[in-house]
From TrEMBL:
This is Putative transposase. It comes from the Bacteria. Residues 63-90 form a coiled coil. It comes from Vibrio ezurae NBRC 102218. Belongs to the transposase 8 family. It holds the Pfam family HTH_Tnp_1. Gene3D superfamilies: Homeodomain-like (1.10.10.60). GO terms for molecular function: DNA binding; transposase activity. Signal peptide: none annotated. The keyword Coiled coil applies. Keywords: Coiled coil.
């Protein structure tokens, strides 16, 4: 029995598939057949696109370019905050060492 490999789809593909239903009037079964994907996964992409269009940043990988940029910026902010925290702790440690030496 061969193990079936899981397919992966780009954000653009997911958005195009969801747009067939949301913007072009396809039914979910029609769009799923034309894009050769399952109806369940297509429904998930449709819901995600609706959420993103509402201005909410998803927890999964974003579909729209604006939400992708927001996710990238949020990741950068998180990294910078972690670096800042590390620097604060290092500075406090160095200052306490200096205080000990001056006594």
């Amino acid at each position: 029995m061969t193990k079936r490999q899981r397919r992966t789809f780009s954000s653009e593909f997911k958005m195009d598939a969801a747009c067939l239903v949301l913007d072009q009037g396809y039914s979910v079964p029609e769009a799923a057949r034309s894009m050769d994907v399952g109806e369940t996964v297509l429904r998930r992409w449709i819901e995600q696109l609706k959420i993103e269009r509402g201005g909410i940043t998803p927890t999964a990988k974003a579909l729209t370019s604006e939400q992708i940029k927001i996710q990238e910026l949020e990741a950068r902010i998180n990294r910078l905050e972690r670096e800042k925290s590390i620097l604060k702790k290092a500075t406090a440690l160095l200052m306490s060492d200096e205080l000990e030496r001056s006594r």
